[in-house]
TrEMBL record:
Belongs to the PIGL family. Its EC number is 3.5.1.89. This is N-acetylglucosaminylphosphatidylinositol deacetylase. The keyword Signal applies. PANTHER family: N-ACETYLGLUCOSAMINYL-PHOSPHATIDYLINOSITOL DE-N-ACETYLASE, N-ACETYLGLUCOSAMINYL-PHOSPHATIDYLINOSITOL DE-N-ACETYLASE-RELATED. It comes from Lactuca virosa. InterPro entries: GlcNAc_PI_deacetylase-related (IPR003737), LmbE-like_dom_sf (IPR024078).
Amino acid sequence: MEWFLIFVSVAVVWLASLCKILHSSFYPNQSPFLNNNAGSIQKKNVLLVIAHPDDESMFFSPTINQLTSRGHNVHILCMSTDGIGDVRKEELYRASAILKLPLQQVTALDHPDFQDGFGKVWNSNKLAKIVEKKIFAHAIDMVYQSLFHNLQVATPHHQSIWKIITFDNYGVSGHCNHRDVHQGVRRFILDTSKRYIEAWELVSSNIVRKYSGPIDIWLSFWSVKGEMHCLVNEHPLRSYAAMSQHLSQWVWFRKLFVSFSSYTYVNTLRKINNGQVL
Ligand SMILES: [Zn+2]
């Protein structure tokens, strides 16, 4: 009887939390994370750096949905395609389309030094160089487009990458590739002269919170302090649909993960301090 009461209580809180999330899709809050420094909501370019195709749908979809809902341009830089390049690239493109990201904003690398798997260390200096190249190429592309379309660009910063988002030092699951990507972005932030670019990391939570589904929104709101932001997923069904595009990965335990993981419902982002020593 006690177990039944506990089960019913958890189910009620689960449903109430889901209602809170769905309610926020009808009455969205403007998180300060989505504002630029001037406090305005000018449309910006954000670079999401991930290790594998499916990271965007499994872990970062609340952030992507919040940004795209407000018209910001989210660009994805995926460092590895798991040794089955074309298949996983196609899956990433299809998932990105569900997440409202145009094809030209998605880059998936198939680099011999960045193959998927445990025990394969990815060099942080090489990763930082790739991030730098991507940001430089984007800036060139923007200048070219503005010239081609005869547009006025007030300063290059308006068209450049505004924020980088990636994993934190634990990488949600502890996967070494996620952690290496974090180190690569940190290395880039430490080395770059482009001080206007901010980097933010997805905060890893403990195992109980990780599988508490929508209930975690309350703990996320409560735990936010300092330079942290909590972004609720306004379209959790879209996240599920995006992950289902990764057919080579779409097995029963990932279906369960996407349904019960708190990362489907909320992301907590923390600013990476570019004064930290690696
Ligand atoms: Zn991954």
